[in-house]
């Protein structure tokens, strides 16, 4: 990822820059101190850490060596520096949650607007503890002793919604995601009540995509459209074992059209709040009355 006159800042360059900055901070070095050790100007160090310029592999080696980074961590960051900027990149989840991906954390920390779409489940950012616990249990991919750690990690990530200067979130939730019974009526009632609470947060808008909208919104999988004030957008698409990040112009154009379509067919914020209130009332019934069949396809709450 060397420097050249036509180089443009990318999301992956910002990710690498963020990783380098964290390495410097862990070494308890100021930017000025590290720049002096490297023989660089503080401006060069700053632009690299902000992802505003390309950086040669040897510069990455020197930077990390002066921060005391060795072995596995050094190789991981060198692999990141060697990746080509091709408009997309893949990150494996490994044993972590998608929520814990460094690439996603870096993007979230600088975002000013995030538009999310989910068509099968309530998004992790809005899940209650019990709902998240059931999701992990039903996935049958996590050992029982790992579930509680995953739930804690998911709840901790929700602090993103309440930081001092949070991004503005718009959540498009398909009716199917809200009607899918996860953990029973009590869990669902608590979950829908949390969604109603989220409707009142100043940086959170929830819009329901009803089944009555037909096929609109059902063919696209879940995604995040992440916009930053000083950088081009990035689309985040989560799969079971890996996530894809897209910042190529051709990808962004497609997802802009999808977001525009969702905006046309979804209920507005006020209608969505009323819809959720009726759904919460439907789940708020005595346990003996809770075993009712789901609504037939194509219906909406009266």
Beta strands, count = 7
Q: Total number of helical segments?
A: 12
So what's the CATH class of the largest domain?
Answer: Alpha Beta
What gross morphology would you assign? elongated
Q: What percentage of residues falls in helices of 4 or more residues?
A: 40-55%
Largest beta sheet: what is the strand line-up? 1-7-6-5-2-3-4
The largest pleated sheet is described as: 7 strands, mixed
Q: Which segments are poorly predicted (pLDDT under 50) over 5 or more consecutive residues?
A: 1-6, 288-302
Give the integer mean of the pLDDT values: 83
Q: Please report which band the strand proportion falls in: under 5%, 5-15%, 15-25%, 25-35%, 35-45% or over 45%.
A: 5-15%
CATH architecture assignment of the largest domain: 2-Layer Sandwich
Query: What is the total number of structural domains?
Result: 2
User: What structural class do the secondary elements suggest?
Assistant: alpha/beta
Distance between the termini: 56 Å
């Amino acid at each position: 990822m060397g420097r050249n006159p036509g180089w443009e800042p990318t999301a992956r360059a910002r990710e690498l820059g963020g990783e380098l900055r964290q390495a410097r901070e862990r070494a308890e070095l100021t930017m000025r101190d590290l720049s002096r050790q490297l023989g660089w100007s503080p401006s060069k160090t700053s632009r690299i850490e902000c992802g505003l310029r390309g950086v040669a592999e040897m510069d990455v080696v020197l930077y990390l060596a002066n921060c005391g980074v060795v072995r596995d961590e050094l190789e991981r960051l060198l692999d990141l520096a060697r990746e080509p900027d091709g408009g997309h990149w893949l990150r494996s989840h490994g044993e972590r949650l998608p929520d814990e991906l460094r690439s996603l954390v870096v993007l979230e920390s600088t975002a000013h607007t995030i538009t999310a779409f989910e068509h099968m489940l309530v998004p992790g950012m809005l899940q209650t503890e019990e709902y998240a616990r059931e999701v992990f249990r039903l996935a049958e991919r996590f050992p029982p002793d790992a579930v509680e750690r995953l739930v804690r990690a998911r709840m901790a990530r929700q602090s993103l919604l309440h930081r001092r200067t949070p991004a503005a979130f718009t959540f498009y939730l398909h009716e199917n995601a809200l009607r899918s019974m996860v953990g029973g009526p009590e869990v669902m009632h608590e979950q829908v009540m949390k969604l109603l609470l989220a409707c009142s947060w100043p940086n959170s808008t929830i819009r329901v995509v009803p089944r009555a909208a037909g096929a609109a919104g059902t063919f696209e999988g879940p995604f995040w459209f992440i916009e930053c004030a000083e950088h081009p957008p990035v689309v985040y698409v989560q799969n079971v074992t890996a996530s894809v990040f897209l910042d190529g112009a051709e990808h962004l154009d497609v997802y802009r059209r999808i977001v525009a379509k969702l905006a046309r067919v979804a209920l507005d914020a006020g209608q969505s709040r009323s819809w959720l209130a009726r759904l919460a009332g439907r789940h708020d019934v005595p346990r003996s009355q809770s075993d009712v069949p789901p609504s037939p396809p194509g219906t909406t709450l009266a």
